[in-house]
Give the backbone structure.
Amino acid sequence: FFFQAEDGIRDYKVTGVQTCALPIYAAAPLAKQALPRPATVQPAGRPASDVAAYWERFGAAHPGPLAVSWSRDTGAAESILGNLSAPGAASEAAARRFLAENAALFRMPAGQSDLQVSASRSTPLGRHIAFRQIHQGVPVFGAEAAVQFNAQGRVIAVSSSYRPGIFISVTPTIDRAAALRTALLAVNVAEAPESTVDLLVYPVGGAYPLAWRVSVPTDDNTWESFVDAQSGALIGAPRDINRYVNGQVFRVNAVVATQNNALRDNNDAASAVPSSAYSTVVLQRSEEHTSELQS
C-alpha cells in the first residue's frame, strides 16, 4: 500500500552495506487441491464493463491528471492517483465516505460492513488510513483498501484489493491441529512449537476457500502453507517466506580487519575501507519485515 516504509535503515550515514533480495521458494512437488478458475479474467490494464462506465463518470468529475491500474482478477480499480476529492478533514469517516461514494469503482458494497480499520497513521504526505476485508469475522487474505490524504485533507491516492462475491461458510470441518499436522508433513518437519495457525478466506484461482494459514518457523526456513479448512487438502505448495539477502559486514571491525590504527572514515565514505575488510554473509529476514531489504 501507499507510501509506507517500515523498520528500514533510514540513516544516510550507514555505509558499506550492499543488499540484494533473493526470495527462495519450495521446489519439492506436493499434492495440490484442484480449484476452479475464474469464469472470466480481465485483460491486463482494462476495467470490467460495469466498472468502465463508472470510471468515465469519475474521470469527468475529476478533470485533473489521474493514474489508475486495474485488477486482472476482478476488473475493479486497484489503485488511483491524483486529486481525488476536495480538501477536508482527514479521518476514518472521510476515508469510508470516499470509498462508499465510489464503491462501484472498487466493486465493494457501499455499506462497508466488511471493512475493518487496520492502520491509521500520519505520513510525510498527510494521513494514511487502511482497512482489511473481513468475511463473517474471518479475514480475507491479502484483501485490503487504503486511502491517502495530503496535508490539506484531500484524497490523493487510493488502493484496493477488495474481493467481491464471497458467500462461504466460515465454520471449518478440519480443526487447527489437523491443519498443523498437514503443514508439518508437507515440509518434513516433526514439530515446530512456535508455529502459528490462523483461519482465513484464501482467494485462489477465482475461488474463495476457507483455509488455515500455517506458518512453520525452523532454524533455516519459515514455511507458509495453506490448508483447506473443509477438505484438509494442501492448497498449493508451501513457500519459504524468509528473504535471503547477501550483505557485507566488517571482519570484527575496520581497524582490526585492516590492522591499521590510523584508519579514518573520510566523512563516512565507503571507499575509506578496502574490500578485504569485509566478508559476505547471508542475512535472513521474515517476508513481513523486509521492506528495507528490497532493492
Observations:
- Residues 1-42, 286-295 have pLDDT under 50 and may be disordered.
